[in-house]
């Protein structure tokens, strides 16, 4: 008769399942995981070796060139960016027709949340009094 999740019969059945079915499964899993961790901990750690790399003249020259180019490239980019905005016009982005169509479809596919609320802007007027009826106050 009692069908709620708080009924005593359901509670006893759940506790019996936990102890007899899920308990051993959970214990076996924790045992497997602990064995795996013990095995990983017992393995010797790999020693980290620092590799000494001798720099050749070619690599030194390439490194200097990259440093020089990186400094000049930033300045050139800034000049190009600033040159386009001298007239004060804002940047305009172009969107493909495919992109516009995709956005439009996504917008139309949205589900609007419906609110079941009494509208606030309703004005109530007193009802006309019918003859023979008393007015409730």
UniProtKB/TrEMBL annotation:
Highest taxon listed in the record's lineage: Eukaryota
Domain DUF2423: from-to ranges: 1-44
CC annotations in GO: preribosome, large subunit precursor
A Pfam match: YBL028C_N
Alphabetical list of InterPro entries matching this protein: DUF2423
Disordered: annotated segments: 1-137
Protein name: DUF2423 domain-containing protein
Biased composition (Basic residues): 8-19, 112-137
Organism encoding this protein: Elsinoe ampelina
Signal peptide, first to last residue: none
Basic and acidic residues: bias regions: 26-38, 52-75, 96-111
